[in-house]
Amino acid sequence: MPVENIIAALEAKNGENILTLDLKNKGGLADTFILVTGNSETHMKTLTDAAEEALEREGRKCRIEGEQSQNWRLIDSGDIVVHVFSHRGREFYRLERLWGNE
Predict the structure, then answer these.
(1) What are phi and psi of 53, to 5 degrees?
(2) Which of 9, 33, 53, 68 has the smallest C-beta neighbourhood within 10 Å, fewest atoms?
(3) Annotated domain spans of the chain
């Protein structure tokens, strides 16, 4: 399943605080959000690349936004969206709270 493969790829790159939010019944634009935190800009890039590669191995096309951001990068593959945050970005955007899972 794609979600498990993405999580495994993020774990392999030492992603921190990986969380999956099920949005199927929340009326969102995606069915699943995967949130992960990186320790540095380089680590965020590594995590972004790992998520993109995992999605592509599943035959999914994706679009990346915020590649130059130091706080938040987004990998959108339609029903699965991966959010790669810095510690500061994760605390600021607080998607866990926004989507009612915290």
Answers:
(1) -65, -40
(2) 68
(3) 2-98
2-98: CATH number: 3.30.460.10
Report the C-alpha gap between 7 and 25 in whole angstroms. Answer: 22
Any residues with CB less than 8 A from the CB of 101 and at least 6 apart, and which?
A: 19, 21
In sequence order, what are the beta bridge partners of 63? Answer: 76
Q: Does residue 33 contact residue 99 with C-beta atoms inside 8 Å?
A: yes
Decide: pTM greater than 0.85. yes
pLDDT 10s digits, 30-87: 999 999 999 999 999 999 999 999 999 999 999 999 999 999 999 999 999 999 999 9
Task: For 63, list phi and psi in degrees, rounded to 5.
Answer: -125, 135
Q: Strand 80-85 to strand 32-37: parallel, antiparallel, or no bridges (unpaired)?
A: parallel
φ, ψ at 31 (rounded to 5°)? -85, -35
